[in-house]
Amino acid sequence: MTTIIEVDGINVQPLTVDSIQIFAGQRFSFVLNADQPIGNYWVRAKPNIGTTDFTGGINSAILRYIRAAKVDPKTSQTLNNKPMLETNLRPLTNAAAPGRPVAGGADVSINLAVSFDFPTFSFRINGAKFVPPNVPVLLQIISGAQTAQNLLPAGSVYTLPPNKVIELTIPGETIGGPHAFSVIRSAGSTTYNYVNPVSAEAFVIFLCKSIDELSKRYNAM
Q1: CATH 2.60.40.420 fits 2-88, yes or no
Q2: Which of 45, 128, 159, 198 could serve as 89's disulfide partner, Cβ 3.0–4.6 Å?
Q3: Residue 5 phi, psi (nearest 5)
């Protein structure tokens, strides 16, 4: 068993689990209790694509106790009876989500509908395709020569008022970015949590569930 203590740089209340499903961009810190008899044990990491088994030690590492023989473990895989569920994670401090404790209870609510355009092999958000400029956008904005709206394709820029609560809703089929948000509704769940939602930078909308939805909030600075 392992005890999760931090998610994406945010301290959380200790949560003991026997497995953690980690998606690209997510980070977890956990404490592993090495309280088993001295020996060798497999640590397995099963990917969702490619070679997904553990034959010959693939997708595996060895946890070897001091004084244990330098041989491959003989342990077998057991069922995950207590997997990590995002809805069970709770922040250690500053628990409540900003805004009013209702859906849409923010100063500004934005829906980000993500789609994929196969002919151009590109992602779009609310129909707008991101086209990176030759010179980084932030550098051009800082120079004062151009505004963000002039530099990026139409529909790519959302101007946010300062010191307001922003709620972003993302329908199924995308992943998140590097900003700590209060995840008030997790992927795979229909329940909203405004009291003590986990804060995370990376979050997941199940690719197989287009009706799924994730909602998150943060304070604009």
Answers
A1: yes
A2: 198
A3: -125, -10
